[in-house]
């Protein structure tokens, strides 16, 4: 049976004006931090509603951030963003396979010497990790080099990462060990409890990440060699495998039938608008797939309770922040898509984030947050010295007073980006005439959530555009980007889309290649006087001549499987110069 969430009234927050450096508090003041990071968990198909223990121990004691986003909807790039605080265009880890992604690319980019666990250790924390770290972290390359910065670790390794009944773990300096026939999440739970005990006994504040693979598809096995194209031909993704004790649960559960479930008319852009309607046979399979995802999350739910109860028994729960989130979202049957991710639709990018801890209010928050914000948040909690350089996010509000402060100043946008292929999971491929096993989905996009508007704007590498008004069209079924001069001009905030688009184009030009401060405050590049911080403020009529003169916009030279700068199109942002006249236009490189 589906469990309803009973949450307090919503809180509506935004960003504190943090100084560049924080003082390190005394040891006993610093909190412990526990992160539970699932894999491919959805928000828009209600998976969290089927986790009663998560509700009991975390949701009912903390804040559910309903507007939390991943900036890249695929495993490895999203995880690298999470642990470095940098967008994928700044890490250049954009895929799950080499040469454009995976653990070898993470190492080659120098991040094994410059990432969150090392920063936390420098701040005096003990650091622990168990579960999936990155794709292409394997039984062959686990020690070449070993992931740095962890006081103690126990990693899941490819090619067996996604095999629920054939996991391989690798602890500290010891060689990998196979756990064939045992249930992966249960093994992980015991390892997590052991590391939690180590952290409690360490005499220091500790940071622990527990990263189960649920509810990711079962992959038998995950390819680790060859080109990405060869790997995709060999890959076999099927429904996740629940523990025996959970296989009987939720017999009547089905994918929620919302407006974008297998719609009558195709939508989107590029290959998505060519997808055929799913057949009854495929829908039945997809419902079974969905049910299996709910079932595998029950072992994660038990893990959550185990962590909380052990913290409570040790007397450390009240000084511990617990973050529950996932790397990216997931779709099943929305927009005629078979199971998978890697798209810019809300199902793939808007994901769960729930936080419990000292001073965290109980309820829901509509503040806009992203994975780039989590590393700065952890560093702030740890009292670590850090500045904006190299970090593309800002700490999320965690206390009631922070939420009030941020109503006036927090950013309302998230930049969304993707390079590479979309891969259908399960037994059915894309319903396209060419029968391809994957499709190019390279995009640069913006997700903007303001007080009176909610927009998604994207440019594909084919130079097709999408614009959705999620206030009136939450299922993203009606692309309102004008495709002809005769098309009726719809309005946003009472303003014709034709006048909104130049503002969005200018903002996307900044965010597509932003770094550090400009990722958090992109309007400061376009309006350096500081008088514009939101899209609504940019819509002031005094800027009409400026924006009507803007010709530079995001476009692509060609589609690529990775971040190839020369194919990314224009790299200059436009700047409005105060005092030079409202019709003056200047160009300035970021």
Describe the structure.
This is Arylsulfatase. There is one protein chain. With 590 residues, the chain is an alpha+beta fold. It has a domain of 385 residues: Alkaline Phosphatase, subunit A (3-Layer(aba) Sandwich), CATH 3.40.720. It is 25% helix and 18% strand. The strands form 6 sheets. The protein has a 10-stranded mixed beta sheet with strand order 6-5-4-3-7-1-10-11-2-12, sandwiched between helices. A 4-stranded antiparallel beta sheet has the order 13-16-17-18, with helices on one face. The radius of gyration is 23 Å and the shape is globular. The N terminus and C terminus are likely disordered.
Give me a quick take on this structure.
This protein is of the alpha+beta class and 590 residues long. It has helices at 52-57, 75-84, 88-91, 102-108, 116-122, 184-201, 228-234, 280-313, 346-349, 374-382, 400-406, 497-511, 517-520, 523-526, 535-538, 544-548, and strands spanning 32-38, 62-69, 126-132, 152-156, 166-171, 177-180, 206-211, 218-219, 237-238, 320-326, 353-356, 363-370, 413-418, 421-422, 439-440, 443-449, 454-460, 465-469, 491-492, 495-496, 572-575, 586-589.
SS class: alpha+beta
Identify low-pLDDT runs.
1-27, 580-590
Largest sheet: 10 strands, mixed
Number of distinct beta strands:
22
CATH topology of the domain at 29-413: Alkaline Phosphatase, subunit A
For this entry, give a set of tags.
590 residues; alpha+beta; Alkaline Phosphatase, subunit A; 22 strands; 25% helix
Write the layout of secondary structure elements.
Blueprint: E1 32-38, H1 52-57, E2 62-69, H2 75-84, H3 88-91, H4 102-108, H5 116-122, E3 126-132, E4 152-156, E5 166-171, E6 177-180, H6 184-201, E7 206-211, E8 218-219, H7 228-234, E9 237-238, H8 280-313, E10 320-326, H9 346-349, E11 353-356, E12 363-370, H10 374-382, H11 400-406, E13 413-418, E14 421-422, E15 439-440, E16 443-449, E17 454-460, E18 465-469, E19 491-492, E20 495-496, H12 497-511, H13 517-520, H14 523-526, H15 535-538, H16 544-548, E21 572-575, E22 586-589
Parallel strand pairs: 1-7, 1-10, 2-12, 3-4, 3-7
Antiparallel strand pairs: 2-11, 4-5, 5-6, 8-9, 10-11, 13-16, 14-15, 16-17, 17-18, 19-20, 21-22
Helix pairs in contact: 6-8
């Amino acid at each position: 049976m589906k469990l309803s969430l009973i949450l307090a009234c919503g809180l509506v927050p935004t960003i504190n004006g943090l100084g560049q450096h924080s003082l390190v508090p005394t040891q006993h003041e610093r909190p412990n931090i526990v992160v539970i990071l699932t894999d491919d968990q959805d928000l828009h198909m209600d998976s969290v509603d089927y986790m009663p223990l998560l509700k009991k121990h975390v949701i009912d004691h903390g804040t559910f951030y309903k507007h939390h986003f991943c900036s890249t909807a695929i495993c490895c790039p999203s995880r690298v963003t999470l642990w470095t605080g940098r967008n994928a265009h700044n890490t250049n880890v954009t895929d799950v396979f080499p040469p454009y992604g995976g653990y070898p690319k993470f190492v080659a980019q120098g991040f094994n010497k410059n990432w969150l666990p090392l920063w936390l250790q420098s701040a005096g924390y003990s650091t622990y990790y168990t579960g999936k770290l990155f794709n292409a972290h394997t039984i062959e390359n686990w020690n070449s080099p070993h992931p740095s910065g962890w006081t103690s670790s126990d990693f899941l390794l490819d090619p067996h990462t996604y095999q629920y009944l054939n996991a391989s773990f690798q602890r500290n300096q010891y060689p990998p060990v196979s756990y064939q026939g045992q249930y992966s999440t249960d093994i992980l739970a015991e390892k997590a409890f052991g590391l939690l005990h180590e952290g409690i006994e360490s005499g220091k504040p500790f940071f622990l990440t527990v990263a189960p693979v649920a509810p990711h598809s079962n992959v038998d096995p995950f390819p680790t060699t060859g080109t990405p194209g060869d790997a995709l031909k060999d890959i076999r993704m099927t429904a996740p495998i629940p523990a025996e004790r959970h296989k009987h649960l939720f017999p009547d559960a089905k994918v929620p039938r919302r407006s974008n479930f297998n719609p009558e008319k195709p939508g989107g852009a590029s290959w998505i608008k060519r997808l055929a309607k799913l057949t009854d046979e495929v829908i039945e399979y997809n419902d079974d797939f969905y049910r299996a995802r709910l079932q595998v999350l029950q072992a994660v739910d038990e893990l959550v309770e185990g962590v909380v109860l052990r913290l409570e028994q040790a007397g450390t729960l009240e000084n511990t922040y617990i973050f529950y989130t996932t790397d990216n979202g997931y779709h099943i049957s929305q927009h005629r898509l078979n199971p998978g991710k890697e798209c810019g639709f809300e199902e793939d990018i808007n994901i769960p984030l729930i936080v419990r801890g000292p001073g965290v209010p109980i309820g829901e928050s509509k503040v806009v947050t992203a994975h780039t914000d989590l590393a700065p948040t952890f560093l702030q909690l740890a009292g670590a010295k850090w500045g904006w350089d190299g970090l593309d996010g800002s700490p999320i509000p965690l206390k009631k007073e922070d939420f009030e402060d941020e109503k006036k100043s927090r950013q309302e946008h998230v930049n969304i980006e993707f390079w590479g292929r979309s891969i259908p999971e399960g037994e059915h491929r894309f319903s396209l005439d060419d029968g391809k096993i994957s499709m190019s989905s390279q995009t640069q996009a913006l997700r903007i959530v303001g007080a009176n508007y909610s927009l998604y704007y994207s440019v594909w590498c084919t130079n097709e555009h999408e614009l959705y008004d999620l206030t009136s069209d939450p299922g993203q079924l009606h692309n309102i980007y004008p495709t002809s001069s005769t098309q009726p001009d719809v309005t946003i905030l009472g303003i014709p889309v034709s006048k909104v688009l130049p503002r969005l184009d200018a903002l996307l030009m900044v965010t597509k290649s932003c770094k550090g401060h400009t990722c958090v405050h992109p309007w400061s590049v376009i309006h350096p006087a500081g008088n514009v911080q939101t899209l609504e403020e940019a819509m002031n009529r005094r800027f009409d001549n400026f924006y009507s003169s803007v010709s530079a916009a995001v476009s692509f030279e060609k589609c690529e499987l990775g971040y190839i700068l020369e194919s990314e199109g224009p790299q200059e942002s436009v700047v409005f110069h105060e005092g030079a006249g409202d019709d003056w236009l200047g160009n300035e490189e970021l």
